[in-house]
Amino acid sequence: MRNPIILLAALAWPSAGGAAELVTPGAEPVKLGGGFKFTEGPAVADNGDVYFSDIPNNRIHKWSVADRKLSTFAEETNGANGLFFAEDGNLYACQGLAKRVAAYTADGTDSSSLAKRYDGKKFNKPNDLWIDGKGGVYFSDPNYGNPEHTQDGEHVYYIPPSGEVIRVADGFKRPNGLVGTPDDSTLYIADIGDKKIYRYAIQSDGTLKDRELFCESGSDGMTLDENGNVYLTSGSVKVFSPEGDQVADLKFPE
């Protein structure tokens, strides 16, 4: 599911018990393009355009809803991986090769560095991110192919709207995807190295508490729907209810 880009078609096809309540029967996923080396980090703009990274090719691409065409949004992206749109329309990106979180303006200009270090040391390899309602940024920092071991482990961090970056979660083998609820009350974090998803209560200062195991499943990226269901990517798209019960397993042809 990495190399081709496949439109989820509004999650419109059933494949497991409970899926019929989530999808429109009979619809199929649509392939939008191919020829990429390793696609990652899809993010949707306010107008519905879809942006995604091709990490080895050092590019961010855009699929336009209006003309249904693919284009290159940015090049020389320092291995940009996870993407997320901020309220101001800037596209935030985890740049693994540069070991930082950066922001792109609407024209694809790499305009600013939001975080480069913690405790005076470079990050390992920032991977995925989520922006809360206040503009604060949570991001995971696993150690994929980083021989420097620049941090003392693989952790999750928070960039407050104003102030220094703080470490908010540890105890992972390899943290990866993360996503928060629209009311800023809960953050889900995938430990892909241990095949577990954890759930945390978000505090007013951005710190996390009350870690609990949400489900036994690995995941790369993840997202939520309007009913609070959690969508995990691991070979297929597995859907879990807010209670942690699997309700669907959405398969793809590639």
Describe the secondary-structure layout.
Elements: E1 5-7, E2 30-33, E3 39-44, E4 50-54, E5 59-63, E6 70-75, E7 80-85, E8 91-95, E9 100-104, E10 110-115, E11 117-118, E12 121-122, E13 129-131, E14 137-141, E15 155-159, E16 166-169, E17 175-180, E18 186-191, E19 196-202, E20 208-215, E21 222-224, E22 230-233, E23 237-240, E24 246-250
Antiparallel strand pairs: 1-2, 3-4, 4-5, 5-6, 7-8, 8-9, 9-10, 11-12, 13-14, 14-15, 15-16, 17-18, 18-19, 19-20, 21-22, 22-23, 23-24
Tell me what the structure shows.
The chain is mostly beta strands and 254 residues long. The protein has a single domain (5-250), classed as TolB, C-terminal domain (Neuraminidase). The chain has no helices and 24 strands. It has strands at 5-7, 30-33, 39-44, 50-54, 59-63, 70-75, 80-85, 91-95, 100-104, 110-115, 117-118, 121-122, 129-131, 137-141, 155-159, 166-169, 175-180, 186-191, 196-202, 208-215, 222-224, 230-233, 237-240, 246-250. The strands form 7 sheets. A 4-stranded antiparallel sheet has the order 3-4-5-6, with no helix packed on it. It has a 4-stranded antiparallel sheet with strand order 7-8-9-10, with no helix packed on it. It is globular, with a radius of gyration of 17 Å.
Observed structural traits:
Neuraminidase, 0% helix, four-stranded antiparallel beta sheet, disordered N terminus, 254 residues, mainly beta
